[in-house]
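Bumping my old thread because nobody answered last time. Still need a sequence for this structure:
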């Protein structure tokens, strides 16, 4: 009887435990089969107010408004350097000096050559003048008259024959001298012309040497910033007059008070770009700052590469503080349309149907999947966010797709 009593008391406990196990299993199956309506917080975004612009982006490099590569007209060795990169210079300011020792020696030599040529010219002129006088024969008329008198006296037997012979000889000598001088006039005239040409040649050589000496002093051709310094003291410098574009680069100067971005715009967008159009420039070094600019040039001829045609567009920017440096990579956002203080929704939350009607999904725990579709009306888009004209209010949450 005792055993039967203990068994009868265990049955309610066993049944209770079994009921709890079955109930827990039922709740677990029901929970597993129940649809999940909780939205991942990382998939949520908020409708907010802000500014939005539709733009065309031209990517390129920051360039100074004007840039000059300074090269030397004279060849030589750099003796002194007066400026370094990063320094501002004025037009005419001394930048560098080449060694002048050889040029000064060449100047002395050219000066002496000119003086010798001038002396030779003076001598040729004197010879020419003498020949001109002798060619006129000033003594011939007098000697001819003397000869005629002597012949008359000799025919009368008043003088000796020797005097007649002397008179004839003197007259003939004067004639020969006149003839020779007449011939020499042309020669001496040519000598004068030749010596004058030699003087001109020597003077030109002297002027070239003087110019080379002046050119050995390198001065700034403009007001601007030294963008690069490409030589050191002792470096050899070749003349641009000899080697042209291959001549030694000394300095690069630029006016960086105004800079520009020379970017490329796809042919699909170039029709929307016009001169004077506003632009904002973004550079990697100033991620949180945008510089204002304007379109100042549009290339009339496109360039095709890899079957894509693009047009060069210049966007100019004021840069009085010099923050923008030459050759910085930059994106110029050319503003096509801009809206201020409007409702914005992420582009990634927008869904379009076949008729291109837009809608978004919002969290709603009362519906089966925890999300509800809401039709919306949109304005402009910048590719990341879109203007929300109707459908939602500020502060509402949307689900990112």
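Sorry it took so long. Here it is:
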């Amino acid at each position: 009887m005792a055993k039967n009593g203990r068994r009868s008391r265990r049955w309610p406990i066993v049944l209770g435990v079994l009921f709890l196990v079955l109930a827990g299993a039922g709740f677990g199956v029901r929970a597993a089969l129940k649809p999940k309506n909780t939205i991942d917080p990382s998939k949520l975004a908020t409708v907010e107010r802000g500014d939005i612009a539709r733009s065309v982006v031209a990517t390129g490099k920051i360039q100074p408004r004007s840039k000059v590569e300074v090269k030397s007209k004279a060849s030589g060795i750099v003796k002194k350097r007066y400026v370094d990169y990063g320094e501002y210079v004025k037009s005419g300011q001394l930048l560098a000096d080449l060694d002048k020792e050889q040029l000064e020696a060449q100047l002395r030599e050219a000066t002496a050559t000119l003086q010798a040529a001038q002396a030779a010219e003076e001598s040729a002129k004197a010879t020419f003048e003498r020949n001109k006088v002798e060619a006129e024969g000033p003594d011939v008329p007098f000697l001819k008259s003397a000869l005629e008198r002597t012949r008359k006296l000799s025919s009368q037997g008043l003088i000796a024959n020797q005097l007649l012979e002397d008179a004839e000889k003197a007259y003939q000598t004067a004639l020969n001298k006149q003839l020779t001088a007449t011939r020499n006039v042309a020669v001496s005239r040519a000598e004068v012309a030749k010596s004058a040409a030699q003087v001109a040649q020597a003077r030109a050589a002297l002027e070239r040497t003087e110019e080379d000496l002046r050119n050995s002093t390198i001065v700034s051709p403009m007001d601007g910033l030294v963008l690069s310094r490409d030589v050191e003291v002792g470096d050899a410098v070749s003349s641009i007059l000899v080697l042209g574009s291959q001549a030694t680069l000394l300095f690069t100067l630029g006016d960086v008070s105004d800079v520009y971005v020379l970017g490329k715009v796809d042919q699909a967008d170039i029709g929307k770009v016009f001169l004077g159009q506003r632009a904002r420039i973004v550079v990697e070094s100033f991620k949180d700052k945008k510089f204002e600019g304007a379109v100042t040039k549009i290339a009339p001829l496109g360039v095709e590469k890899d079957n894509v045609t693009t047009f060069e567009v210049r966007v100019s920017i004021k840069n009085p503080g010099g923050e923008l440096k030459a050759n910085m990579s930059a994106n110029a956002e050319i503003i096509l349309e801009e809206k201020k203080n409007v409702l914005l929704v992420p582009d990634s939350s927008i869904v379009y149907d076949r008729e291109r009607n837009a809608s978004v999904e919002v969290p709603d725990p009362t519906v089966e999947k925890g999300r509800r579709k809401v039709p919306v009306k949109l304005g402009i888009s910048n590719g990341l966010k879109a203007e929300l004209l109707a459908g939602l209010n500020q502060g509402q949450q949307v689900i990112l797709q």
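The longest helix spans residues 161-215. Let me know if any region looks off to you.
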